[in-house]
């Protein structure tokens, strides 16, 4: 295995393990009867770490280590970081929300098969189950995750408006004003065309990859 392949295998396998750890902590909370209001306090550190760790994928695309669009990868990673770091980490109300738990479940269960699929494909081994999961679990998890993001964003907006989170008001030395509350409204409305567009794109990807897999098995 070449150096590039070895690195990507280790990266993807580590990410699969990391997200497995995150979802296992959520499962443990549920098994001992803890409420959803405890999810954030328990998984905060590993959740933030593995989501920030995913930023390396922008670098992978930029350096040509993987054949992915830099812009698309940046948008996907940045949108999650905005929700997590700019919204969830700053607004106590959303940390206690059931929608943070559903967000965690959706992101974790979507990432585990994705990273396993990539890791196994680098070894040249059979990826039938991992590939099917990679291109099937999104059917439920993408609406769950995107819906949770929208609801967390909406729920956080009164807090952001009242406290001026991430905003800059005039007068100031920069002579520049920035209203993050208005940005949140823009982000919220972008979900409306963005969600069906991305869902349709993933459906096409599912058809393409699962059809190819079926052909290889037939051969």
From TrEMBL:
Keyword Signal carried by entry: no
Pfam family, one: PTPLA
Topological relation to the membrane, as annotated: Multi-pass membrane protein
Catalytic activity entry: a very-long-chain (3R)-3-hydroxyacyl-CoA = a very-long-chain (2E)-enoyl-CoA + H2O
Major location (coarse): membrane
Any one of the GO BP annotations: very long-chain fatty acid biosynthetic process
Pathway: Lipid metabolism; fatty acid biosynthesis
UniProt-annotated location(s): Membrane
One GO MF term: very-long-chain (3R)-3-hydroxyacyl-CoA dehydratase activity
Recorded GO CC terms: endoplasmic reticulum membrane
Keyword Lyase: yes
Transmembrane segments: 7-27, 70-88, 94-116, 137-160, 180-200
Signal sequence, start to end: none
EC numbers, comma separated: 4.2.1.134
Keywords: Fatty acid biosynthesis, Fatty acid metabolism, Lipid biosynthesis, Lipid metabolism, Lyase, Membrane, Transmembrane, Transmembrane helix
UniProt record similarity statement: Belongs to the very long-chain fatty acids dehydratase HACD family.
Name the UniProt record assigns to this protein: very-long-chain (3R)-3-hydroxyacyl-CoA dehydratase
Origin species: Galdieria sulphuraria (Red alga)
Upper lineage: Eukaryota, Rhodophyta, Bangiophyceae, Galdieriales, Galdieriaceae
């Amino acid at each position: 295995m070449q150096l590039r392949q070895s690195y990507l295998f280790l990266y993807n396998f580590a990410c699969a393990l990391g997200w497995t750890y995150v979802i296992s902590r959520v499962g443990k909370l549920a098994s001992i009867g803890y409420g959803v209001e405890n999810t954030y306090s328990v998984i905060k550190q590993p959740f933030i770490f593995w989501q920030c760790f995913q930023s390396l994928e922008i670098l992978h695309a930029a350096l040509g280590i993987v054949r992915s669009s830099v812009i698309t990868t940046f948008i996907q990673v940045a949108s999650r970081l905005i929700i997590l770091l700019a919204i969830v980490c700053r607004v106590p109300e959303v940390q206690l929300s059931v929608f943070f738990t559903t967000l965690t479940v959706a992101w974790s269960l979507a990432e585990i098969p994705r990273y396993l699929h990539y890791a196994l494909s680098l070894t040249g081994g059979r990826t039938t189950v991992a590939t099917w999961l990679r291109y099937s679990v999104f059917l439920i998890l993408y609406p769950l995750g995107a819906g949770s993001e929208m609801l967390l964003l909406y729920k956080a907006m009164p807090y952001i408006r009242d406290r001026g989170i991430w905003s800059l008001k005039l007068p100031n030395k920069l002579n520049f004003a920035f209203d993050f509350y208005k940005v949140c409204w823009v982000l919220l409305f972008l979900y409306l065309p963005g969600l069906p567009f991305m869902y349709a794109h993933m459906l096409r990807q599912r058809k393409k990859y699962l059809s190819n897999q079926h052909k290889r098995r037939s051969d």
